[in-house]
Amino acid sequence: MSTTPVALTLNAGSSSLKFGLYDIAAAPVEMAMGLIENIGKAPRLKVHFGPGRTPVSRDLAATDAADHRSALTTALDLLRAQFPDARASAVGHRVVHGGPGLAEPVVLTPGVMEELRRLSPFAPIHQPHNLAGIDAAMEAFPEALQVACFDTAFHRSHPRVNDIFALPREYYDKGVRRYGFHGLSYDYISGELKRIAPLIHEGRVIVAHLGNGASMCGMIGGRSVASTMGFTALDGLPMGTRTGQIDPGVIFYLVQQEGMSIDEVRQLFYSKSGLLGLSGLSHDMRALEAAGTVEANEAIDYFVFRIRRELGGLAAALGGLDALVFCGGIGENSRLIRERVCEGMGWIGLELDRERNAAGDTVISTDMSRARVMVVPTNEELVIARAARKFLCAQS
Ligand code: ADP
Predict the structure, then answer these.
(1) Residue 334 near ligand 1, beta carbon < 6 Å
(2) pLDDT score for 99
(3) 173 is catalytic
(4) How many Cβ atoms sit within 10 Å of the Cβ of residue 118?
(5) Is 160 domain-assigned?
(6) Domain limits at 357?
(7) pLDDT surpasses 60 at 360
(8) Number of structural domains, the chain?
(9) Residues 189-201: what's their mean pLDDT?
């Protein structure tokens, strides 16, 4: 049996399970990273490993991933076949909601689980899946330390004025607040900035996490001051299939005049809108960039327009801007979106260097630019693996 301590990371989405395996003898080193998508429908498995092992990418039988529990069993079978000696001594979970109280990762105890179940109504589309993943992992690894890391935690440093809505006060006390999400990604970027650009880290930074889910976060000294997501992960920027910010009056109209049920509106806002809704073609930025249709171009225009608006708003909240950092699938890969976001932004101190942007450099602003523009690949799983290792070390 291997003596190397190993941590498993799990990120259970509504129809997907992302998993990572890390050697955590010292700072976590990735051994495997995989994804089972389309759980319950036509599941597909993709895994890549460190050097010397062939990646796996194949369709699964429906029964291999009928639900999160069977998907986890399938993932574990594959990991065991590749690493027969590895035993997970810790499992780290991504959990969308930690509520107002949880500002750090925690070890999962029955009491914490109860608290997280109480928070399910605040994230009905994500939290129950996260908790199902935890239940399955506790069953599979009864001896392992189980750790939860929260997407909301990084934003608990917000000033109160950012977290309140202009509702009667009792709703805040009931939990109706701006929580903010994508916290694991922002936490990672904050740590990376501290390592590669410590002076920037100390300053006023806006991070644009642009993936299927998209949001922006304003930080000072590496701590979150404001973010574009609010009570749910629906607010702020338009996303692959989510509306982003929308006048709540639209909901009243759809229900009262169009006769839609609340569930239908929810489905419309979460799954049929955003880039997909506007383009009528795809939620995927690569497909939209390639399409060149009027509708696809308009979807891109709206995405860029809203990022630029939020950039101005967040810079005002920070009292200025020292750096803009792009991350996420679009932020890290789309030179077009980065270029369009930064176009004519000299007034806020941003001057993009087109060649650096095209080359995919880390710093893509000109040497003269007052504020720096950077591309920093994010790694949410590594944040989870680090937390698992920290608790494991504290225990031994
Ligand atoms: P998730 O929120 O699911 O983690 P990702 O961060 O993986 O999403 O981002 C997925 C998005 O990134 C998709 O819209 C995809 O089209 C986009 N993307 C990935 N590579 C590129 C690229 N080279 N150019 C433009 N967009 C890209």
Answers:
(1) yes
(2) 94
(3) no
(4) 12
(5) no
(6) 183-375
(7) yes
(8) 2
(9) 98
